[in-house]
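Entry:
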Amino acid sequence: MISPNKKLVLQARSTDDMNDWLNVTQNAISAALTEQPIRRGTDKKMSGATATDSSAAAGSGGGGGDAASGGGTNNSSVMSLLRAVDGNDKCAECTQKDPEWLSLNLGILVCLECSGLHRTLGVSFSRVRSAKLDTLDWAQQELLFALGNTRVNSVYEANYRKGAAITLSDGSVDSSGAEKPKPTTDRLSRERWCKLKYVERAFVKPVTPPPGATDSTPASLAPLLFSAIDAGDTLSLYHALACGADPNWHDSKREHRTALHYAITFNDLVLTECLISSGGARLTELDERRWTPLHTAAFQADVKMIELLLLRGGGSVKDDKDVWGHTPIEVANEYSEFKKDVVPVLERFSQSADAKAAAKAAKQNS
């Protein structure tokens, strides 16, 4: 990919991913040409590919600031890319054209009226932002590009049948059924739909429990997360999370790691962001070495992964210690042959955190 500012070499995981890339890029270029010019100097990434350009490898969270800044950008090019994702040309709920609001954790675009109803669900179910007014960091963009309305609805509406009786989470049956909203549907009906869809998860098709499981408890379904990570399958991971698989379950067969630890060992940013944003994976869980996810990323020498974890509040760079007393910085120094790339990121964040703590203390004492 060649732009006026840089040349990017992109590698997809499969032919299907490559074709998706080509379609999204071509659609975005077409949309941008009919709207306003893309701002120069921005770097947008999509799921399933990596950029070898040095500025992309350094990451949006770097560039002299601390990783927690996120390096977010928001302009017409992002909106064009989001709209080009399958199904995103219409609201995920009522099919209103050209939605301009999004749910960060669900990975969908919705219209203005449905965005208000998503807000009423609470942030534990849907974190709503404006696709045009709010700043999205690079990791949020990655997940949105990887999901989209069609894929998400294939999970959350898989068992939807117009007017059919609905089994609720408490086991009771609502015989009145449901109907997917239209742009003209009244507010109360839309609100009921959103609650059935996301709070009750009434239309989600149950996943098949993993071999050996005798029930479908969150812990019993958790191995499905590891299987999805092995396969690099974001949608299967997302589906298992929607069915209640516990992202904080520790696998005794994999050094007591959680799915988050495991995804980090694959250097997969989209799966990691999905576990954190969509699944509620905790960044403080410890494996058998007492490694946090940040320790694991430091060992992997993955600068972008480190930036993502720090962006999401991923533990303490210098206070979290493993069974040998090593902090993430010390793990990077001892084990990583790429420590010259990794350690400065961790140290920069540590210094920034110290400065913020000192400023806060000074303000409290003044």
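Residues 1-203 form a domain with the Annexin V; domain 1 fold (CATH 1.10.220.150).
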